[in-house]
Amino acid sequence: MATPGRKKAATGASLLDALSPQLMSLVEASLGHSLAAPSSVRNGLSSANASPPPQRSTVQPPANRGESVIPQSRSSDYIRVGVLNPSEIFLLRQADSPGFVVREHFLGPAAATAVHDACLGLTESTPMRPAQVGVGKSTAVTCHVADARGDQLVWLPHDKTALPPPLQHLLAQIERLMHGLAKAAPELGVRNVKSTQLAVFPGHNTRFVPHVDTYDHNNNAKQHLSRRITCLYYLNPSWESSHGGALRMHLQDGTTWDIPPVLDTLVVFRSTDVLHEVLPTTVHRLALTTWYYGGGSATTIPSTPPSATSPTPTTPSFATNIATRTTSSCVTGSNQPLEVAGGDATSTIFVSIPSYCDSECQPTVAHLFATAAAPSRVFVGLCLQHEQDDQSMDMYGEHVRIKRMRPADATGPCLARWETQQLWKGEAFYLQIDSHMRFRRGWDVYLIDQLRRCSNSPQGRPRKAILTTYPLGYTLPNEIPNDTRPTLLCASAFDSHGMLRQCGKVLKTSPSSPVPSAFWAAGFAFSRACVIQEVL
Q1: Which of 81, 249, 397, 398 could form a disulfide with 173 if both were Cys (CB 3.0 to 4.6 A apart)?
Q2: What keywords are assigned to this protein (predicted)?
Q3: Model-level pTM?
């Protein structure tokens, strides 16, 4: 009997035609670009019954850009984006420089067209609202002022997997640039905290008056989370000078520089001091903006325990300091505690964290301690692969043990995780996580309770269980989702290197006990610490 797959092959179709839109999205995201597949598979966030956006198949890069258009199914039409070059980094880090750089042909013709189509689909399927502007000396008060700003916008979800693959690819390339900038110019204070919006100016001479993206220039700007770098990506394939709508940069010497909002142009500039405006536009003007944030040392990150140079803190004083901080903005009101009646609040826990140039590492460690029911029993082993000699972790005293490495010596997460395990000193339980994570209050008691629920097999024999999953994402700086349903690890697809990729599927209901899984996730695994000695 012929299988459905063989019947497909006989008609000239491929396995891609049988993939669900969700699975196709995962495959495309892992490859970094879209695959040649039916348009119904590529329809991003739009509904299955939605009609395709008008004229998408005819979208072409501007004719005067000197690039030939290669069919979208050919990977050679996708530019592999590098890092910012030294000249660009100089322009962004020097206070007396213009403060902006322009990258034309950022993704390449086919990738840019795919992003344009995806964004056009979002404008058709997602409600957009009038943009607001800050009134006064900060952005604390906002209102809609049509004469000042005439665009409409929608904020994109923080979970990139909810976006169409072309958008995932674009955001990944921008993130690569920002990662390099954060390493090369640490004084900019750029963290892995970002927000992205899609904005449309509907024509009719709508504009955005001169402004900077970060309004708070007093001392609070250094303490609060604030925009540091703006990344503008333009999505207009047939732009003419008569349309208006250029991005006008105001230089410090009083002159201006106009940048046409042409498809596949990326503009990166300092959010804090680069004055810019959108000139009146007579046609629809589409742009995607991603802001990278910095700061947060006072209000979004709690104070730390006494430093290692001070007398070694006793357990009660450490616990008291942490308990006091749980009322700070590090733990928001939406962070509901994980209630466990009569749980274990004394057994020690060793937490393994490798960090490769991750600006979220320090906030992760702070949140880990601030949300623990018994923080004095928590000890962290940290492999810190950072360029600068970051001393902030030293302030945790004996509760954070550090192995420092130069990023140039890093060979991947496996070595880094092994290095953290060498810092284990006999704690009873072992938690392995990534360096960008947030926690619910009482996570330590809850995990021990859940582990003990699966410690025996159905036949009553003891077994060595590991709790593992892909945790849900969080909204920076410290907002975690209200959804407490667990995620189950599932196989998704093989990537271009032949490696099986996993994904986390949220269960419809919360089971009464942990669910067996065929897979293991390195980014979150909790077990008894004997796993360090017995699993090689």
Answers
A1: 81
A2: Dioxygenase, Iron, Metal-binding, Oxidoreductase
A3: 0.47
